[in-house]
Write a structure and sequence with these properties.
heterodimer; A: alpha/beta; Rossmann fold; 2 domains; six-stranded mixed β-sheet; 32% helix; B: mainly alpha; ABC transporter involved in vitamin B12 uptake, BtuC; 13 helices
């Protein structure tokens, strides 16, 4: 049996970087093949070569056993290869059907669009692949997961037999990921071949038949999914053993740092988002808040950091009432905040690394002289120190953070927030979108801070993360804390039920 | 001896290193303005086509333009006189813009500033110049600042959009000063103007016999001050942070309302100072309609200058030269003055429009094509 795709001896260099170094890569027919690697390992470059976006410096490509010259995406499409990019290439104002047929329209008399025939055809088409979608809905009205489905349908409509999915789950919620996996399995049953690019170990293990692991442009492993496990894959991908669980010192005393009493707040639409929340966080404790996103977590963090007004209730830090304090005052009181959206809230993308590192401390000595002038010398020394201490991968302190990778950007945020020596860290989705190495780093830092006596409030949609880090686990559902549990006395199943609004067993 | 020589060569090396760094910096800066320069040249090329089509010789017209603007003392004086108020209004636009606000009301701020300065100028007599002139300038800045404060507070308290309020307040300024200069403060005679200000409130003319006044020195100092404030001060840091990403600035403990209010007040004060400079240096009284749209030119110049204080200075001189050289061009070659307006429009179209569009795209101003 010949392989659907075989790439042999692929090398591609960019100025200063060997993105792909003599890579051999083969995918069988009707197989779901995972291409695993950290950000920058060369996954996307390899697939861009297969899709004709880049020409390799060396190496051959075979499709169904025949050597081909992959000189452009249109050649790739002709050979039955389709790629679904991380960022969708859809026209938002057109309907789903119009988007799917774009470039391959059915016409009457070669002039008029034959929309009726199109809709009929597409209906059958969608049913065949079990990808359900409202064909007449304009794309901009659809949630991200459905838009992705449209993108996949578009690719199939162009006759793709081999689908490349580039980090398809990075924009999806856990429920949407499940939907996507169902669709991928259905595609396999129809005889399609799927290449699944990802850096998420669990997902690759869950969906793929075989896995190729890349590290720094080289193939470091080819394994069958049912013959490997998380630890082995992580080790291959990162090049060393990865820590998923953390050692924590047990602390006996309960010295309360943050106390929240019956807190209420409304969201941007004026609806009640927090319906009376009460909890506390102690010295050397990580309180994890689990919950499906959109159950008031975002509003809770905003109220705690002073970005949103509380309509009722009290927030106390070290017995000082801060319910009405401004964000700046709260920073001065020792509250640090790792925001859930580092692009929007965490960083100023056009500011340099140095400028971002002092945000929040910029109006305090030693960074300011008499609250008027910035102290350039102190600031640059501080920036250099943090870049070193937190291993921030940047060419210099003066580079705009826009040019750094997601993981590095999050390191800048974490470095800044930790360097203030806070009493309380509020970390919201701190590892979202990060690769394994960066995730491990951020988690390690949070535990380190906890061990040094800091109180940590961790909000995460990732139950594994909550599980691995928390001393106590709270569950939020529809703006309320439905339970606060000791991780040793609960189960994943119980938490899942609570998150879904079910009653306790 | 060898010791001495070593020291010397070391110092030599140091100088060389400094020079190398300076040149690298210069190259970087030059590279940054290359697109701007090319766009300006293209605008002139397009202008040449317009001239050809309408039956004039571009070479002759442009020659007259350059000679008119820089050929003699009169031309140079006129060029810089025209550039002066535009520097103020462009800095005003720039400063508000850096905090994320569109102050398009510089015209009105300039008018109220000019009138306030004239009022102080005619109301006191016998003060020493070093007291009277600064008082009049201060009055201009305060009035302009007040004209910036009103939209700022409306924005902070009620969320009124500053584009609407600053523009509407421009009309208020136009008609209020128009009333004041036509009725209570009108000098006897046919012209709608106030009586002359006291000589002690006049800004000295620095290039006799042209009208170029010390106002341009204030403008140049303001360019430096603006650059320094934005880049080196804590407040400037907060202004830039707020302008680039208000959400992150807020998370970082910056009170974005306070920053926006202050920035708009400072912006208005700059434009007001420009108006005061015109009144005290050029006209020596408030004349109705003394501004042919300096406020609007300021917006264009700020964009042509790449939203950078030094760039603003250069762009303002270009616009001043177009105005002053344009008159000579009309006189010598018979090319209508409208061609100068077309040229100005072309420069804006080629330089400023793409910048604005890029900015809006980055801001997600038209978010159509997904990400």
């Amino acid at each position: 049996m010949t392989s659907a795709v075989e790439m042999s001896g692929i090398t591609k260099t960019f100025p200063g970087v060997v993105a792909n170094d003599n890579i051999d890569f083969a995918v069988e027919n009707a197989e779901i093949h995972g291409l695993l690697g950290e950000n920058g390992a060369g996954k996307t470059v390899l697939m861009s070569i297969l899709y004709g976006l880049y020409r390799p410096d060396e190496g051959q490509i075979f499709v169904n056993g025949k050597e081909v010259e992959m000189d452009s995406p249109s050649t790739a499409i002709k050979l039955g290869i389709g790629m679904v990019h991380q960022h969708f290439m859809l026209v938002p104002s057109l309907t789903v059907a119009e988007n799917i047929i774009l470039g391959k329209e059915l016409t009457k008399n070669k002039v008029l669009l034959d929309m009726n025939r199109t809709l009929n055809d597409l209906k059958d088409f969608c049913e065949r692949y079990q990808l359900e979608v409202d064909l007449k809905a304009p794309v901009y009205t659809l949630p991200v997961g459905v838009q992705q489905r449209v993108e996949i349908l578009k690719t199939l409509y162009r006759g793709a037999d081999i689908l490349i999915l580039d980090e398809p789950t990075s924009v999806l919620t856990p429920q949407e990921v499940e939907e996507l996996f169902k669709a991928i399995r259905a595609l396999k049953e129809q005889g399609k071949t799927v290449i699944f690019i990802s850096h998420k170990l669990r997902e690759v293990l869950a969906i793929c038949d075989k896995i190729t692991v890349l590290r720094r442009g080289k193939v470091v492993g080819k394994v069958k999914a049912d013959e490997t496990d998380l630890d082995e894959l992580a080790k291959m991908m990162v090049g060393r053993k990865v820590v998923f669980t953390f050692k924590k010192k047990r602390v006996k005393t309960r010295e309360v740092v943050l106390k929240v009493e019956d807190l209420k707040a409304i969201d941007d639409r004026g609806l009640l988002a927090l319906g009376g929340v009460t909890f506390d966080v102690c010295v050397s404790e990580i309180l994890g808040i689990a919950g499906v996103e959109g159950n008031g977590q975002t509003e809770l963090v905003e109220v705690l950091t002073g970005l949103r007004k509380a309509t009722e209730g009290k927030i106390l830090v070290d017995n000082t009432d801060i319910t009405r304090a401004s964000p700046g005052e709260r920073i001065r009181l020792g509250i640090s905040h790792v925001p859930e959206d580092r692009h929007k809230r965490g960083l100023i993308q056009d500011f340099s690394v140095m400028e971002n590192l002092i945000l929040g401390s910029h109006n305090r000595p030693p960074f300011t002289i008499g609250r008027v002038r910035l102290n350039f010398e102190e600031t640059s020394n501080f920036a250099k120190r943090l870049i070193k201490d937190f291993s921030i991968k940047t060419p210099s302190k003066d580079v705009p953070v826009r040019h750094l990778s997601g993981g590095t950007q999050q390191r800048v945020v974490v470095a800044r927030e930790i360097s203030r020596k806070p009493k309380l860290i509020i970390a919201s989705q701190p590892t979202r979108g990060l690769d394994v190495g960066a995730t491990e780093y951020v988690r390690k830092k949070l535990v380190e801070m906890r061990n040094q006596g800091c109180a940590v409030l961790l909000i995460s949609a990732d139950l594994d993360e909550i599980w691995a880090l928390s001393d106590r686990i709270a569950v939020m559902y529809e703006g309320k804390m439905v339970a606060i549990k000791d991780p040793e006395k609960t189960t994943e199943r119980e938490l899942g039920l609570l998150m879904a609004g079910g009653k306790r067993d | 001896m060898t010791e001495e020589r070593r020291e010397l060569s070391e110092r030599n090396l140091e100088t060389k290193e400094l020079l190398r760094r300076f040149l690298a910096r210069l190259e970087l800066e030059l590279r940054r303005i290359i697109p701007q320069v090319i766009a300006i040249l293209l605008a002139f090329l397009a202008g040449a086509i317009v001239l050809l089509v309408t039956g004039y010789s571009p070479l002759e017209a442009y020659g007259a333009l350059v000679i008119g603007a820089f050929g003699d003392v009169f031309g140079i004086g006129q060029t810089f006189t025209q550039a002066t108020p535009i520097i103020f209004t462009a800095l005003a636009f720039l400063f508000a813009f850096k905090s994320g606000l569109f102050n398009i009301g510089a015209e009105g701020q300039l008018l109220v500033g000019g009138f306030a300065a004239a009022l102080v100028g005619i109301s006191f007599d016998g003060l020493p110049p070093f007291v009277h002139a600064p008082m009049a300038l201060l009055a201009g800045a305060l009035a302009g600042g007040l004209w910036g404060f009103i939209p700022a507070i409306l924005k902070a308290k009620l969320g009124a959009h500053e584009v609407i309020t600053t523009m509407m307040l421009s009309y208020v300024a136009f008609y209020v000063t128009g009333y004041l200069v036509n009725y209570p403060y009108k000098a006897p005679g046919w012209v709608s103007q106030t009586p002359p200000i006291a000589p002690s409130a006049e800004l000295p003319r620095i290039l006799q016999p042209t009208q170029l006044s010390a106002s341009i020195l204030i403008a140049v100092i303001l360019v430096g001050l603006t650059h320094y404030t934005l880049q080196k001060t804590t407040f400037g840091y907060e202004v830039r942070a707020t302008g680039l990403n208000p959400a992150a600035a807020e998370s970082g403990g910056i009170s974005i309302k306070r920053v926006m209010i202050l920035a708009l007040v400072i912006s208005g004060a700059m434009a007001g100072l420009g108006g005061a400079g015109e009144v005290m240096g050029v006209h020596r009284r408030f004349i109705e309609g003394f501004s042919p749209g300096y406020g609007w030119d300021g917006l264009a110049v700020a964009l042509v200058g790449g939203l950078n204080p030094v760039g603003v200075l250069l762009a303002a001189v270009l616009f001043g030269a177009l105005r002053s050289g344009g008159m000579t061009m009309t006189r010598v070659t018979g090319v209508p003055l409208d061609i100068v307006s077309i040229l100005q429009a072309l420069v804006i179209l080629f330089v400023a429009a793409p910048m604005l569009i890029r900015y809006l795209l980055k801001r997600g101003g038209f978010k159509w094509w997904g990400s």
